[in-house]
Write a structure and sequence with these properties.
This protein is of the alpha/beta class and 215 residues long. The protein contains nine helices and five strands; from the N terminus they run E-H-E-E-H-E-H-E-H-H-H-H-H-H. It folds into two domains: 134 residues, Rossmann fold; 68 residues, Arc Repressor Mutant, subunit A (Orthogonal Bundle). Keywords: DNA-binding, Phosphoprotein, Transcription, Transcription regulation.
Length: 215
């Protein structure tokens, strides 16, 4: 079954390009809806799409992107920000809000397609611009993680599901979830929330738990 995507962008040429890239992708990716405002993500068939591709600069302004991103993420949508903006602050803000990936338009089709597949499979993806923003953003407050928590994190970043981590560690998926919940709580307690897999990966890279070169 094809990965379904809703594209929110106010430049027809960009939308047409995205459609063309997805049409040639493997696995199959289908744009089921597109529009110039976030409303398209809340109406059929966009409301059931696997992934939401969102431009931050709709109508020439990015003033309301935080509200839009937060609303989509809070509803459980897997959001890929696809934007001309490449600032570190914007990238980290989007990760903190819970997006699945942050891809700049300068990075082209290769990274957008890969990020879309990763988001649909609930895997993190680090295109160059995001990797650079994470590496440059060293936060001073680091939670104290146990060796077991670190092991679960590392395996989870390499896997598509908690079940695969559980199989490799000979524990139950519920136990894997418990470890991840503990890690998220520890990050929240030091003021660095990590609500999604992508955000948690960013924290782990910042704190040296995972090496960017290994990803």
């Amino acid at each position: 079954m094809a990965i379904s995507v809703v594209v929110i962008d106010d430049h027809p040429a960009i939308t047409a390009g995205i459609r063309a890239w997805y049409a040639q992708a493997t696995p199959a990716i289908e744009v089921v809806a597109e529009g110039t405002t976030p409303d398209v993500a809340w109406s059929p068939p966009g409301d059931t799409a696997d992934v939401v591709v969102l431009d931050l600069n709709l109508d020439g302004t990015a003033s309301s992107y935080q509200h839009t991103v937060r609303r989509l993420v809070d509803a459980g949508r897997r959001v890929i920000v696809y934007t001309m903006r490449d600032g570190q602050d914007v990238a980290m803000s989007c990760l903190d809000l819970g997006v699945a990936a942050f891809v700049t338009k300068a990075e082209g089709h290769e990274h957008l397609v890969a990020a879309t597949v990763a988001a649909a499979e609930n895997r993190p993806y680090l295109p160059p611009a995001l990797a650079g923003a994470i590496a440059a953003n060293r936060e001073p407050l680091r939670p104290q993680l146990s060796e077991r928590e670190r092991e679960v994190l590392e395996l989870w970043f390499q896997s598509e599901s908690k079940q695969l981590v559980a199989d490799r560690m000979n524990i139950t998926p519920r136990t894997v979830g418990t470890y991840l919940d503990r890690v998220r709580l520890k990050y929240a307690n030091v003021g660095r929330p990590a609500p999604t897999k992508a955000a948690l990966l960013a924290r782990a890279v910042q704190d040296g738990i995972v090496d960017l070169g290994e990803l």
